[in-house]
Amino acid sequence: MLSSISKVCSTIKKPFEEEGRYMMDKETFRQQGYQIIDWITEYYANIEDLPVMPDILPNAIKAKLADSAPTTAESFGDILQDFEKTILPGMTHWQHPSFFAYFPSNTSPYSLWADVLASSMNAQCMSWITSPAATELEERVMLWLRDLIGLPGSFVGVIQDGASTASLCALLSARERFSNYKINRQGFSDEKFTIYASEQAHSSIDKAVRIAGLGSEYLRKIEVDSDFALIPEKLEQAIKKDIEQGYTPLCVIAAMGTTGSTAIDPIQATGDIAKKYGLWFHIDAAYAGTALLLPEMRWMAKGAEMADSFVFNPHKWMFTNFDCSAYFVKDKDALIRTFAISPEYLKTNADEEVNNYRDWGIPLGRRFRALKLWFVLKGYGVEGIQEKLRGHLKMAQWLRKEIEQHRDFQLLAPTPLNLVCFHFRPKELSDIKTVNRLNKSIMDLLNKSGKIFLTHTSLDGVLTLRMVIAQTDVRQEQVENAWSLLQDQAKKSMEKLREGS
């Protein structure tokens, strides 16, 4: 597909051949840069010709790689040819318009160029003084985002690498504020904090509880309703029971769009309970939070003003390269007191006047993530982003209606956003184990074909096919093609099942 680019690259000399030292000259760098831009352009122009997911066995790529690193420099053309021959065939193409799996990790030209610029400067953005523009741009774009998604002015924001890290920051901040910052100093003594989240909460919450030293046994998974959203009454019952037994309720996490089905926990009711019992209230809107850029979707966030912290990921559905997670807090001092460590070599004269984002999270070193967010917001404008989001939502609703009208397919969860949860279940099949195996087979065969990529979850013990429509430039025709492929494969799999019975 891209071999012509590699042929051109092979004519470029090895960067170190003539200089006799390990420094690339400007003209060689320029030529290689042109080739990379051409490669990227061709990649996106022809991405639909590639299989979404490679049909390879585990360890197949590793077997093609040399056992040891090269001793001498290779030509750029040889490197790129090796990339195309060895690496590209083993890639799952997350930017493919027929990628309907998991949740998206979208990019866009604006984000891509910003990442190139940021990488070229390779700034270490731990403090204001290490990159003043990076720090001040981050502060500004986070205020833009806060206002765009409808959070009140009492929130301030910082860019984290992911929602997993942001949720961990929330739990650590809650832990320290409730212990008067004693645990950071002295470690745990006899604290028995309890944490609450729905049965459908993301696995990152389980991991954060472990890392924060709170203990998995103290994470209460609250029952969900028929729409897979947290039941407030069950939450309050669990809190009361823990108080009676001598535990200290610490934090409740509400999901605004669960991973399995994009269920929306009742934010208002959960916030009221958190306030009543004095818990830290964290909202995990990692995927669905982007939809709040649409005024008509703000119903999801009713009550969000009561939260202590809120996270969503522009790197999921806002066309911004991974990694870029927007984390908002009300109590900035609690966040900083939890994480700030200021050895003498990090102190500067500007510390009292600026944000030093190294103190707003776990890592000391920080990438210049704000630049790509700024490029995306300026490149598309709010209206351009909104238009794309509305298009994705419209396509998902089209698919939902198609499934509702089909006699052998069933919806398995509401479709508040652009994830459609369903399965294939002809009326003649009554055994759920058989239905689950059938749907797993349908999914596996479609994924193996490379034409589309789907993933699954389990809802009430039912294997559920998930189709998320959120690629940056996905078109209606591609959604219709995926639906046709699903129906055709379901028919073939059912015929095979009948033949074997």
Write the layout of secondary structure elements.
Blueprint: H1 3-9, H2 26-45, H3 60-64, H4 76-87, H5 109-121, H6 132-148, E1 156-160, H7 163-178, H8 182-186, E2 193-198, H9 203-211, E3 219-222, H10 232-244, E4 248-255, H11 267-277, E5 280-284, E6 309-312, H12 314-317, E7 325-329, H13 332-339, H14 370-405, E8 409-411, E9 419-424, H15 432-449, E10 455-459, E11 462-468, H16 476-500
Parallel strand pairs: 2-3, 2-4, 4-5, 5-6
Antiparallel strand pairs: 1-7, 6-7, 8-9, 9-11, 10-11
Helix pairs in contact: 1-2, 1-4, 5-14, 6-14, 7-9, 7-13, 10-11, 15-16
Explain the overall architecture:
It is built from 16 helices and eleven strands. With 501 residues, it is of the alpha/beta class. It has a seven-stranded mixed β-sheet with strand order 1-7-6-5-4-2-3, sandwiched between helices. Strand 10 and strand 11 form a beta hairpin. The longest helix has 36 residues. It is globular. The chain starts with a helix and ends with a helix. About 1% of the residues have low confidence.
The helix fraction, in percent, is 40-55%
Number of helical regions:
16
**Arithmetic mean of pLDDT:** 92
* Cα separation of the termini: 44 Å
Q: Top keywords for this entry?
A:
single chain, 501 residues, 7-stranded mixed sheet, 4-stranded antiparallel sheet, globular
Provide a quick synopsis of the model:
It contains 16 helices and eleven strands. With 501 residues, it is α/β, with parallel strands linked by helices. The strands form two sheets. Strands 1-7-6-5-4-2-3 form a seven-stranded mixed beta sheet, with helices on both faces. A four-stranded antiparallel beta sheet has the order 8-9-11-10.
